[in-house]
Specification:
three-stranded mixed sheet; 320 residues; 12 helices; mainly alpha
């Protein structure tokens, strides 16, 4: 990758993972594979939760919007990184960087919001089943999803309004494969980045509150499940709720470490690994986690992929 004098241009230089051309091609191929897996997996979930009449409950409605957020989040960072690796140029224009920061932070916060809503949905379904239809009515579900998307847009606007109001007077080199806010803050030569830090701290507090609400929901769910006499009820919990808790913990902890730890002045493997953990892996693994242990999802996927093998709602095995 050729490093030019980026101090005289309006854009930024993304260093990515390596300067070696062979490693850049390998990175592009791996990211392409991951992107296609995430694309196909999330698209399948969006399709079956939209078309399958048996997947119209609030849980699958929220799962559809989680897949929309995951698909959008992957498309913000990964294609640009693949393009930069294949062309050997890490240049990204100022407006592209602004848009990348806006959409990534919007979708990331949207994912935190929808995961919180999903935990509340599971809490009501398991702990308050008699009130479920009232508390999670279609109108309430639409309001919750609307609040998630609107709050995401507000978050993205807050980040770009504060981040790109600072003066970038240092060499405009970003030691990441996308426009990462902590890396952008390093380019400031004054204290005018304090507003951005304030937004980051505020969002960290809100995210902590969301995670606390999720944990409290699962404490109540655990206590209720342990009192269930049937093994089927406990099995249903382990197939739908534990994967959700793993996704939330993995996403929030890696993101918090990446944003709150001090940034280094050079490209480090830890920074790159953390960024992959909270930007690429969760959106790619979510479809697998939510469908692998869920019988209704697996049945709907089989109906979508092998429609001729189904008669009504039953699977008809073909002759050998």
């Amino acid at each position: 990758m050729i490093v030019t004098n980026v101090t005289t241009v309006s854009g930024f230089l993304l260093l990515g993972f390596s300067d070696n051309q062979d490693l850049q091609i390998l990175h592009a191929l791996l990211f392409l594979l991951v992107y296609l897996l995430g694309l196909v997996g999330n698209f399948i979930i969006i399709t079956i939760t939209t078309l399958d009449p048996q997947l119209q409950s609030p849980m699958y409605y929220f799962l559809k919007h989680l897949s929309l957020l995951d698909l959008s989040s992957l498309s913000v960072t990964v294609p640009q990184s693949i393009h930069n690796s294949l062309t050997g140029s890490g240049y990204i224009s100022y407006i592209q960087c602004v848009l990348q920061v806006f959409f990534f932070t919007s979708f990331a916060w949207g994912e935190v919001g929808i995961l919180t809503v999903m935990s509340y949905d599971r809490y009501v379904a398991i702990c308050l089943p008699l009130h479920y239809e009232v508390m999670m009515s279609p109108r309430m579900c639409k309001w919750a999803v609307s609040a998630v998307w609107i709050s995401g847009a507000i978050t993205g606007t807050s980040y770009i309004a504060t981040t790109f109001s600072i003066r970038f007077c240092r060499t405009k080199i970003i030691h990441q494969f996308f426009c990462d806010i902590p890396q952008l803050l390093k380019l400031s030569c004054s204290n005018d980045y304090l507003e951005v830090v304030g937004v980051i701290v505020f969002m960290a507090v809100v995210s902590t509150a969301c995670f606390t609400a999720i944990c409290l929901s699962y404490i109540q769910i655990f206590s209720t499940v342990l009192r269930m006499p049937s093994a089927e009820g406990r099995s249903k919990f382990f197939s739908t709720c534990l994967p959700h808790l793993c996704v939330v913990s993995f996403f929030l902890f890696t993101g918090a470490i990446a944003y709150l730890k001090p940034t280094s002045d050079s490209r480090t493997a830890l920074d790159l690994m953390l960024s992959v953990f909270y930007t690429v892996l969760p959106p790619t693994l979510n479809p697998v986690i939510y469908s692998l242990r869920n019988e209704a999802m697996k049945t709907a996927i089989r109906k979508l992929l092998f429609p001729d093998s189904f008669h009504g709602d039953k699977l008809v095995l073909p002759y050998c």
